[in-house]
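Hey L., structure's done. Input below.
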Amino acid sequence: MSEPEEFRPKHTISDSVRFQKDREKLGGLILEGMKTTGGTDIDWIVEHNGGFIIMENKGFSNDHISIPVGQMIAFERLHEKLNSDGKCHFLIFGYDDIDFKNPESTIWFFDMKDWKTKSIPFTKNTQYNKRYIVERKVMTPITLKEYREMMEKFWKEFEKN
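Output:
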């Protein structure tokens, strides 16, 4: 039985084993002893008519997400470059186990603009692997249905420009 269209993902990884192996190979580029402050990869970047939607996903642990300082610095700089004309939405999501087929499932997020204006409170873990800690309670809850509506709004915004 085929899934209803509203639950069918736009992109699926056809060979998840190969995808994971290729990501693991890339991890081999960073050698032991190199000075690094955390990963700088991005989960998703979508371009449409010169506008960008960037999404980073973090799993909750004890009701907070953890973002390596180096990764957030890279995110801030990327957002600065891609948003020079105001056409970049950079969202950081927190989630628990989620049923992506249930439109009422909840995820939490904040926008990079809120981070840069310091409207998102955080603590900084300065011990092992310097990280920013963001509590769930300061993030905005959104259902998957609302998330999909927000993505469509961004897409249409880029078509107007």
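The longest strand covers residues 51-59. The helical segments are 16-27, 69-82, 112-116, 144-160.

-- N.
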